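Thread: Newbie trying to understand structure tokens

Hi all, I'm a second-year student working on a class project, and my supervisor (Dr. K.) asked me to get a predicted structure for one chain before our next meeting. I've only ever worked with sequences, so writing a 3D structure as a token string is new to me. If someone could post the tokens and maybe explain what I'm looking at, I'd be very grateful. Here's the chain:
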Amino acid sequence: MKNHVWIFVAGVALAVTGLTLVAGSVVMLQDVISPWWQPISVGVSGGLLVTVGTGMLLQRFSAYCRNLPVRVRVLSALVLWLFAASAIMAGLLFWNSYTAVQDGNETHAIVEKRYTKTRYRSRRISRKVYVRGNPYKVYFTDIVFPDGEKATVETNFKSYKALRKSDTVQITRGTGVMGWEVLVPSTLKPLHPSLHLSRPSRHRSARKY
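---
Reply by user tm_fold:
Sure, no problem. This is what the structure looks like when written as tokens:
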């Protein structure tokens, strides 16, 4: 009975950790301009290999695991696969992003459009109950590179206000060790931010003689 409890606790811990890593991977994927399926396929395949390998070892060397009910073994395998796949994907994305930033180059792009999305914070009203809290805005800018590649960059309010459609911007773009191209959103800046702040008056003052 105690062993079953430990399996349950370990499974919950691995599942929660796996979901947290998935959330982190989703955030890092937003800065990857290579096909989104590449990091996901690597994580899924790697997690499957880890799960199958671990299951074969336990089946061969652990009598306790061999005697577990089928549904427990299946559920344990799914939790292990979730954890392994998310850990591999998050680790490779972080490593790729780190190396891409180190070797990245500044490149130019054109602003295609800018827009906002409204999201909501969660508010806790009891121990296990959360409801939708206050809204807040998130700012995005769609840019197009000279090679035709498009990307969406999350920006802060200051950058959002400084940009206009068809502006030329500068941003760091690099290829990481895994071959996935990455953008660094914090480096996005307009090349001529002052053009929108003040416009010359059309009225010509009279000459003084």
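A couple of things are worth pointing out once you decode it. Helices lie at 2-29, 37-61, 63-66, 70-102, 157-162. Strands lie at 105-124, 130-144, 150-155, 168-175, 181-190. Feel free to ask follow-ups in this thread.
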